[in-house]
Amino acid sequence: MSERIPFATDAWVKRLCEELNKSERYREAAKKWEGDLYFIIEPEGRLTEKVFMYMDLWHGECRQAFVAEDENAVSPAFRMWAPVSIWKRIIDGKLDPMQALLTRQLKMKGNMAKIMRNVKAAQELVRCATMIPTEFPID
User: What's the number of domains the chain is made of?
Assistant: First the structure.
């Protein structure tokens, strides 16, 4: 088994970017997507402060990914936030990301209609995240 990458780290979000860029399924599902985002991880377990994982996603490609030093480093089109336990359930495939949004377990700021038109892209992004051997701060 490969080394697990700590969730909510620069190494983890960069690995997700790599997984997206090598996924033909993601490229196809997200070919019309234009927009960058913050995945905001709220503190829980061993994670003691908010983490802002930035991703620049454009037409099925991840152009850039990093953990921002502070919230104002960039001003993305979308912000999605939840505590570690919700992100873990989504990444483990136990909670559908769209269901999480609709039930407000995962909160969002941005154009919800655009998200709803790109459900398949969101599902493929999560599928790529499941490929990463992840160590969560609540494990």
Answer: 1
